[in-house]
Write a structure and sequence with these properties.
Length: about 70
Amino acid sequence: MGGAETPAGRQATIRPATRLECKICWTVYDPAVGDEVWQIPPGTPFADLPAHWTCPNCSAEKQSFLVLDD
Ligand SMILES: [Zn+2]
């Protein structure tokens, strides 16, 4: 009961299981799935993607991805 409440911060935290969505084409990167296009194995957190990784659909850079809050 009464767990610590997370303040409704505007800054989303990218956790290992956090999914992110491309703000341009809405492609979702799901760490549980990885990325076939880039041959990223399932279980790869967004933070561990290669620096040159881009959206597999529209080639947007990583900065164009927004955290998906479930
Ligand atoms: Zn995209």
